[in-house]
Amino acid sequence: MMASSYSAKEEDGHHSVTAGPAVKSKKPDNTAFKQQRLPAWQPILTAGTVLPAFFVIGIIFIPIGIGLLVTSNNIKEFEIDYTGIDINSPCYNCTQYALWNSTTPCKCSVPFTLEQPFESNVFMYYGLSNFYQNHRRYVKSRDDSQLNGDKNSLTSPSKECEPYRTSNNKPIAPCGAIANSMFNDTLELYIHSSTGDKEKIALTKKGIAWWTDKNVKFRNPSGNASNLKEVFQDTTKPLNWQKNVYELDTDPDNNGFINEDFIVWMRTAALPTFRKLYGIIERKNSMSPTLQRGNYSLEVMYHYTVHSFDGRKRMILSTISWMGGKNPFLGIAYITVGSICFFLGVVLLIIHHKYGNRNSSAEIPN
Questions:
Q1: Which residues on neighbouring strands pair with residue 282, listed in sequence order?
Q2: Number of Cα atoms under 13 Å in the Cβ half of residue 362
Q3: Of 9, 121, 277, 351, which residue is 20 to 30 A from 26 by alpha carbon distance?
Q4: Would you say the pTM of this structure is higher than 0.85?
């Protein structure tokens, strides 16, 4: 009789498997990090911790919001639209034939009245509406190396600038869609006396750009600083510009790539309705206001057309405070959050007072 081997595992349905190559396990390593055994702190929310937090936030945020809102309301601001869409607008005729790169200027005058004086330095802005500077292709359409004064990029701009990279087989300086669409209206402010005479108000065009932009990001190419025309001789101006980049200003410290109007425009806005600083009206002395109440006029050299994208153009006069320009949203936000937290604190306190003692005194039957 032949002997047969017997295995309890085979009787139970288990069959022996011949040892083969080891299969790599997908189980994570047995470490505290991968097995989520790191020390952790989890707050236990109780009435004693939540209620004081709500009340403290409300007590702190509401006064801060009131202070911010009062400060914002104390800032004086005046805004005037000079787009010229209305047929009765002084700038209506300019909208009919004005072109961005036109060498024949169209001039219009918009009268207005200031009902109250502006005491401190007055900041003059231009505002645009329905202009999407945050479009991805628009934002990328620039050459930062060229703007930083790199000579190789000056004659061979980045391909990101297409289709505003070259013109007539010459490199464009500055290249790109942002530079090509630079705001080029000329705004002048006049005050009218009771005798009918008008006097031009001095406008400071320097000191309107960020220090880092003026001194770090934007530089003219090395060479003859007193003769930028020679430095930019192998380049051509953007298609929509009336002037070359070396003709933006007669001051050599505010000409070329370091022109502050140009630098301000190159910092793109996040929203389609925005304002950018155009100049500063400095206060002459402490005895008289910077802009007294009275009749004024805004003289516009109308170049910048906005009807193609249904845009609007504005001129804004504003004072500032320690928190910047007029912005009531921040104060309203603080007051709203503080009020909601205080209200929730009161509601939760009532609920805790009504139901909290009942739960803690309930007895568990044996």
A1: none
A2: 6
A3: 9
A4: no
